[in-house]
Amino acid sequence: MANVTVVGAQWGDEGKGKIVDWLASRADVVVRFQGGHNAGHTLVVGEKVYKLSLLPSGIVTGTLSIIGNGVVLDPWALKAEIEKLESQGVVINTENFSIAENCPLILPMHRDLDALRETAAGAGKIGTTGRGIGPAYEDKVGRRAIRVCDLAHLDSLDAQLDRLCAHHDALRAGFGQPAVDREALIAELKEIAPFVLQFAEPVWKRLNTVKKAGARVLFEGAQGVLLDVDHGTYPFVTSSNTVSGTAASGSGMGPSSAGFVLGIVKAYTTRVGSGPFPTELEDEVGQRLGERGHEFGTVTGRKRRCGWFDAVLVRQSCAISGVTGIALTKLDVLDGFEKVKICTGYRLRGKVLDYYPSHAADQAAVEPIYEEMDGWQGTTAGARSWADLPAQAIKYIQRVQELIETPVALVSTSPEREDTILVRDPFID
Ligand code: IMP
Question: Domain 108-196 is of which CATH architecture?
């Protein structure tokens, strides 16, 4: 089956937007299966820059784009994003866009709770995107969520709202906040409902139909494997499973539909928000990586923390997510460095580890073991074949591939769609 599942193999922001956009232009369907509008994807097509947080990247190319049930959906953010894209000339209609009717909603009370908790946590905060993602997933699992299909039955929602508001009102009282304004909430939902409902359908059914017709499906993961609620740097993670396996449960297609799993890997490491980061550089090298890589969050504008490439973490992500091949991005940010370093192992209280442990205290305590390589002086920016790359840059790529025990399928050398070295076509192999 010629499907592709894309996941970030680090802490998000690996440059998935461009790769997904490039793959989307060759796919028949693009599906988002987890996360919400906390995902920041920047697409550069010619002169135009599109910023997406919630919509699948295929929307820009007019490819059928689907929001699966594994996503948490903020209806107002959805409307704003659609209107912004339409103002940039993107056509979005019921032919090319649909939303799973069983998708849980992010409501204003979720945003409130996200902010209240982060403020109360002070220095111990997660550093969330403040979009209400975590609280919305909690309500989904707690079986009190309002879902897209409920928007068609707002007049008979009393019992559900009782359960939901009872839970939130107790939490809000603990923070000294007033109860949820139910009348205002219902009025807001009534206003937005027709807009959302025009796109709602049983997505699993549509996917089953396109599958039978032999369509190529692209599953677009958001965030990164290290932010996975099970496998990531818990508790400094997002609230969904970001691994490739979620493509199945978050869309309603079986696991055999995942196809080629493409892990997106930045040539160095970045992270936004709090949490451990073994190779973080708080010196001028880290500063240089951030400046050259324009490392500011797409969603929140926050400065990203930067560090050397961590082969241990990426090897782990690739194993956990069953990555078939990687797309290496932003290699040009390393251009001109005299020396570059790769983390190949950790030292923890006298022991050498070849994996990242689960306990938060151990994760914070590991010290990276580095391998140093000569850098390269020529530029890799805009390269479209191996012949365009300096020899030392090729050595770096080969070493990365060896250490992470996963082959390189693509190398992306600028934000432009065409600036890509294709080693192995995920849709064909
Ligand atoms: P939340 O997903 O807003 O709950 O945030 C939880 C953690 O995930 C925080 O560290 C965020 O910075 C991080 N995060 C969420 N979405 C993204 C993303 O798209 N890129 C990078 N980090 C993200």
Answer: Orthogonal Bundle (1.10)
